[in-house]
Design goal:
The protein is α/β, with parallel strands linked by helices. Helix content is 58%, strand content 8%. Helix 15 runs parallel beside helix 17. The radius of gyration is 33 Å and the shape is elongated. The termini are far apart.
Length: 746
Amino acid sequence: MGIPQLQSNVGARAFQKARLQKQLRKQAETLLAAAISAYRQGKSSDVQALCLRILKDLPDHFDALHLLGVSQSDCRQFEQAETTLARAVSVAPRSAEAHSNLGVALFELKRYDEARKCQERAVLLRPNFPTALTNLGNVLGRMGLADQALDAHNRAIQAKPDYVDAYCNRGMVLLLLNRNDEADRSFDRALTFQRDHLPATIGKALVSFNLRHYDAAKTAFDAVLASRPDVAMVRAHRGRLFFEMSQIDAAKADFDAALALDPLLEAAWLGKAQIGILTGNVMGAIGACMKALEQDPASTSAIMFLGVCHRMQGDIVASIEHFDRALAIKPDLEEAITRKVFTLDFAPDADFAVHQAARRAWWDAIGLKLPRAEPQRRIADPNKRIVVGYVSSDFRSHSAAWAFMPVFRNHDRRDFEIVCYSCAPVQDAVTEECRSLVDNWVDASQLSDDQLARRIQSDGIDILVDLSGHTAGNRLAVFARKPAPIQVSAWGHATGTGLPTMDYLFSDPVVIPQPVRHLFAEKIYDLPCAITTETLLDAPSSALPMIRNGHVTFGVFNRIDKISDQALVVWSKLLQQVAGSTIVIKNGALDDPLLRDGLIGRFLAHGISQDRVKCIGLTSRREHIAEFANIDISLDPFPQNGGVSTWESLRAGVPVVAKLGRTVSSRAGGAIVKAVGLHDWVADDDDGYVVIARTYASMASHLQALRASLPAAIAASEAGNGAIYTRRVEQGYRQFWRDYCARLCD
């Protein structure tokens, strides 16, 4: 009798359990309907509370798990979303939607390999699933697989021709590929289906930004922020725009506002790093880079900016290592290539071959991929008035301007028509003076590379001259397109560009000796000196300071990042050998106490007491020149020499000790000193450098006589007389043009 009773009890419990499950499922249907309604109304907290009520009794309820995970993801609770959606996938492994939404959460957690697998699984389960396809495209784009990303977005659009998000996502990939016109059309297509689609509107603003149409980009960003001031990324984008427009205070305000909205926003921290670099706040820049790397350890921009910070601190090896690390992740990161080229000028072990190989790397990664301009038909008239176009972002108060202004001032306008293409938004008194010295002035600051190339062609430029090389603000991408029949690199950073489309490089036999000229992409044309400057009208004659001071004062009026460890060792040795001597170092960066104390500490480490090292920070140019009255002998830094600063010292009557190295940048100072006749002031090695400085430091009467005669001698020399120097430049231009005409007639 006991057994039948037991069977009856088991059956009753099973019945009760089934009845309870039915009640729970029915209740779950009601709760789920309410949760879906709340989701549509944007009531995230209600959605999650209702789903959790369902899951308390039915922990494997797929729809509740799925909706809860999606809601958590929408609320940026990505770790919780990943856990919840992973459970949903385990309950319903054939749900394409669940796999795709899990992939989105993993994407936001920067677990890109896992995210890719989820999206690929979703597409496998449903081959024409547009959401999973465009999500897959987003993952592939972030992984640097741009072509595959475009294919995925195009498949999403093919599956759903009115899919707004897919058009927008495709546009973002095209932006990364610098295919701006195609990106713009993709964003336009999205907006035809949804006029107020915010990401597409932002995308069009970014197209304008990429094309340097800064006014249009600002108008677009302003419009977005007027209606949605809480979008942190748009604040960061506008901050980037302000930075490019040199409106630094406005940029800083936008980056700060973006971080107030989203303290983890990588783009805003990168913007803060750029401002720190520009303003000399190295530690602030490093801190911002570290914040960005916390969000993305593979952030190529953050790694690159750290490289710049190391260079500013004088750690050249670490600087180049950071650029190489960024390039290992993104080999075509143009900024990293250009900054590496510039930084190699400071590397003591680099030589001509290393420098020119780095420049060729820019061509291989960037220039080679750019379209060539269609050559225009020319009349072969070797005696015509030649149209010369100068391209620069430094037609302003900048050291580069002091090098090309003498040529502008002395051009023979009967034989040469001069056109300037100004590529910087900043204008000042120097800009106005440059404008007054030329025939035509083009504000190219908001022209894209293609637009500028077309403008150069339409202006009929015969000889196009680059004044920037691989420095900030360069337009080498325009020169890579070859919009002019003859292209020349000169003055601003005339160290070689590596561009096969650049025909000539102005230099001199000392800067680029004959045995290494085969390493350059350009044909070398010799001038009396690679660069010149104008006479210093505001430099009064002065007595030799050592006579009134009773000791020798050496001077270094150069950027402190040019003060290499090797140079500092040599200078310290010199100070030890010349009793009572002092050294004055002048650079605006020395207003930063950290950098100033660090520099003094480096001298202390080599036995030079603090009272023998004087640091001077930023002053006006007039005050800068006046400081040479307190210097007996200037010391040229190495391996990165002075250029304009060397000329300034010589024109002020202060001779310069220099040393010849194995690169353009390490021979520039010696070339200038030799060009004005001071051959005995140029050494071949460190010991010779010390001997020269020590010897002349004991020759007060000779230094006094030289101080009085040097400015006039320089003004009469081929290298230092602006009119004579410009005639040599123009002889070069005429030769280039005649050779070109001869080739046309062949």
